[in-house]
Structure formats: structure tokens, C-alpha cells
Amino acid sequence: MFKKLNNKIFRDLFWVIKSDQLIDIKEALKKKYLNECYENFYSSFKNIDLCGDNILVDLKNKTLGKYFEMLVFFWLNKSDRFILIEHNLPVLNTQKKTIGEIDLIVFDKKLSKFYHWEVCVKYYLAYQFKDKLSYIGPNSNDFLNQKLDKLKKKQLTILNSKEGQIILDSLNIKNIESKVLMKGMIFYNHNMIKNFNLDLNENHSKSWWIYENEINDFLNHKDEFCILDKLEWMSDPFPKFLLSYNKLTSKLKKLFSKSDKSICLAIFKNKKYFNKGFVVSKAWPKKINIISN
């Protein structure tokens, strides 16, 4: 079992199930429920084999969102508690035009209930602009308020539409409940007061973000560091090589000279993982005109 926990995919898999939900809306899967699912899954952990599963296929070409979905599907398929009925199911209108997609439909054998789950992993940087607090994706192209609006008004209600009812009829499902599994982290600038959006889970995972010109004051020069790729953002990283402070600053300078793309950075103290956060360019965020609370 210890060897399995050394496997990044298994660490990510447990993070998907066990980490705190990012939001706390009424449709969010509750912590008690997810803890029960975790205990059930962990009990069969030693019998689970990754070999031959699609989760390992072309992993380098997967987006973080798709990788997260794959982990959820893998969990449900391997769990004794669930039957995965459908996933990534397009919803079509009478003109055969796609009007949405159902992330997954699952049957919970313990509760004898059908569920529709919307699943996603999100990372937002809290940003104070004048009197507005916004939660913005690292590269300024994703916003928490827009995601919540889409979830509440479209994704979680799509099965209530006539097109959704056609799908349920075809699956012989009379009653179903819509839920959301949204994992991730909110990053706060080290100078800001942490005032939370009301829809955020008060126990959501939190960390830091800084501008590139704050590196010298914020980072400990005695620590070591690792720049993380997107697929390394979930569970704690265990890189083979670490960067000294001087090597890190040199590398960051080169990266920001070529691109304004935000960089996810892990900090290690005495060779042990401490935390991760984002370093952003002086120009971040660019889309200031469309920020709203």
C-alpha cells in the first residue's frame, strides 16, 4: 500500500475524494458523504490496479480538468458503492444541436438513489480592486462568479429541461438529484485580508499568491523550490530535483521575459514539501474591465 501512495495518480485520486469542497452551495456534495465514500474506497485500495486503465493513456496531453474527470470516473468505476451509468453525455435539442453536457450520472447502491454530478477542479486568485473582491483564474480567463452562475442556472438544472427529461426517460430514471463536486484552492495575496465569497466553503483549501516583484521579500532565501506543471497542482508534489533561491529567481526572470503566464511554485523546507502558490506578472490581471464580484 505504501508503494501505491508513492504513485502520483493514487495521491491525486485520494485528493479528489478527500480534500475539502471549494464551494458550499446547497447542491454541493457534503463532507460527511464524501468521507464515507473515502472510507469505502480506501478499504478496497489494496486490490486496485492502475495497469491497463485509460487513466494512464496520454496523460501528458490531458488538461487539468480532463485529468480530474478521469480520476473521478476511475474512482466511481472501482468503487463497490457506485455504478457509473453515463459520463460526458451531450444534451441535444430537436435540431440535434448540443445545448449542454452532463458530466456523469451515477447510482449510489448504499442509498438506492440516482445522482447527476457536475465535477470540476478550479484554482482562483482572490483579487481586491477598489471595493470589489473577485476570484480570478491564474491566467485571467476564468472567474468564480461566472462558474457559479453557470452551475446554478444551467449545469445543475439541465435535466429539468425537456431535453434532459428525454435522456432520463431513455435511461428509465424517474427520480434523480443533481450535485456538484468542485475541488481546488483559493490563493490570497499575502497583504490582503481574507474576506470570503458567501458561496465558498469556509474550510476551502487556501494558499498565497505574489507579484514577481514581491519574490525577494516573500520567499525565504534558505528554502528550495519547484515550478509545477498543471497536472501537479492537486496532491502534494514530490519532485526529483529542487531549485535554490538563486536558481529559481534566475529561471522566473527568464520565464516572465517571454510570457505573462502565471507560475505555480512549490516551497520545500529541509527537503519537505511546505506549500504551493502562484507568482504572477506585474501586468496581472489583464482583463480588469470584466472583473465582477
Portion of residues in helices?
25-40%
Rg (C-alpha, Å): 21 Å
What pattern of helices and strands is seen along the backbone? Answer: HHHHEEEEHHEEHEHEE
How many alpha or pi helices? 8
The count of domains is: 2
- Proportion of β residues? 25-35%
The SS-based structural class is: alpha/beta
The poorly predicted ranges are 288-293
The overall average pLDDT, rounded, is 90
Described by the principal axes of the CA atoms, the overall outline is globular
Number of separate strands? 9
Descriptive labels:
8 helices, disordered C terminus, 2 domains, alpha/beta, 293 residues, 29% strand, nine-stranded mixed β-sheet
Explain briefly what this protein structure is.
By secondary structure, the chain is an alpha/beta fold. Helices cover 28% and strands 29% of the residues. The chain has two domains: 2-189, no CATH class; 210-290, no CATH class.
